[in-house]
What we know:
single chain, Heat Shock Protein 90, Rossmann fold, flat, disordered N terminus, binds ligand 28F
Amino acid sequence: MAEVRNEYGAEAIRVLKGLEGVRRRPAMYIGDTGRRGFHHLLLEILDNAVDEALAGYAKNITVTLHADDSVSVEDDGRGIPTDPHPELGISGVEVVFTVLHAGGKFDRKAYQVSGGLHGVGASVVNALSEWTEVIVKRDGKVWRARFSRGEVVEPLHVIGEANGTGTFVRFKPDPEIFGHQTWDKEFIRHRLRELSYLVSGVRFRFVDEKTGEEEVYESGGLVDFLLYVDEGNPPLFSPPFYVKKREGDYELELALHYTDTDDEKIISFVNTIQTTEGGTHVTGLRAALTKVVNEYAQAHNMLRELKGKTLSGEDVREGLTAIIHVKLPEPQFEGQTKTKLGTAAARTFVEGIVAREFRRFLEENPKAAQAIIQKAIVAAKSRAAARKARELVKRKSFLESDTLPGKLSDCITKNPEEAELFIVEGDSAGGSAKQARDRRTQAILPIRGKIRNVEKAEVVKVLSNAEVRAIISAIGCGIKDECDPSKARYKKIIIMSDADVDGAHIRTLLLTLFWRFMKPLVEQGYIYIAMPPLYRVQKGKQVRYLYSDEELEELKREWGNNITIQRYKGLGEMNPEQLWETTMNPETRTLKKVTVEDAIEADHLFSILMGKIVERRREFIEQNAQFVKNLDV
Length: 633
Ligand code: 28F
């Protein structure tokens, strides 16, 4: 007597009911229903295509923005199975799109790549989309299924013959859940570029059907990523140290080199998700580097001048840029934004491989070893000197000075929750911002934005010391390891600069300063960019302020002829009332919250703008000048 399967039927029905729960509390599944949650839907579908690439079947992945504001992702993998699922009795396609957490539970052999919130899967995208269309090419046929808000509206059926295989998913996020949001093309480009580095050998294409723009991202892997991040900063040795190793279920890919700067950059990923808060894989990497560099230096008798002292982890990591990507099943995430890897085994896994392989690298590349250790020794000596200077002078360092910078026009409230700091470029704009502001809650700090040529891309040198001191002491939350956002005097720190090349420069500079000296402020969403209007358009008595060229085109069509258009070159052209109304009034302004991605992109731009390779800088500005004025960093 065949075993009765109805318990699976009940199980499937129970789980199918789960999708209504998704619509009732969407934030539980995608974090929020704002811009991040909206884009998370795309990241989920994209991660399923990436899974198929990681499994070794997909080689091309295309993301398309359609004219109706829907988005599609296509891969040329095996195609989602169309035959009835052995346990659930419905097709693999309907399992993936209607069973909650299907991907995780019915795990494919490859790593289940988890979208930022750990792979909630395609079924959540279906539940939160006005409509979803799935087209599968498999077994020589083209199959199609359509869904709406989690429900099947067109069951899976054959619609034609196919050559090749693959999966195509197109969906429109539900305005009932997300309101009317637009796709952030820079954010999508950033993710596709990042994926092209993390999943080498796969070609990622981005198409905007409205404008016809099309970009392709493809790379040779983490070494290309490293060279991209440090574009403009020549490395101390080349080629970089690179290792890719698999041990059981764990896989490590690591590329690192050193540049002639003094900051440490370790960019880390787990299953293609960036771990901005680091974790056990980063701990393992750091431990191995410190151990191996000290062992090599001792063995070659290079530490005499440190009088028996060893090199600290900080000394060894000065000037380091490393990109580490570990893949493991069921990673445990911790931390404020769930982007810190907690899996303990990952530490010993990484430490073991890096110790073995980096030791061999130093032995086989004595010049590189020499450069790394000399740099670490200089760092150790300058740190000792700085410590002595601090102890000697016992003067309040500019971080502890309790006097606020003279140029700060502070706000009246002392409650950080309602206080805002506007960092304004130039004294004239600073002046009108002081007149325009709500002095109860809004503080103004004018700074000069000129970037001076410096021999090394160090933000503190680029922004004159006084500027940096003013910003750091005005915010009051400390820097580097002492940075504690709960001590910040303002809940919003708003960069307000002109919409021209200089404004973009100062914006890049400030974002780099925050990213390198006050990273937790960026990670916890304290930093914003003010969006001053680009145009003031008048027709008779009517006045409109516009923030993009698209809005101008639209208004030109709506208002037809005899209109006057003023293009704002700088904040200083607006009188205080206009500046208040268009850019500072919390009721009417638009602020862009700076994300970690923005900061990393700014850091990259900074290393080009300030990098040693001058022609690269000229080339960059020529290429990007027309964008830089609207650079939305
Ligand atoms: C545009 C988004 O979703 N690609 C996908 C596959 C391939 C398989 C698969 C997906 C049924 C329920 C296990 C094919 N052949 N791109 C995508 N490609 N899902 S999603 O299987 C899902 C099974 O869960 C696949 C053999 N094994 C797996």
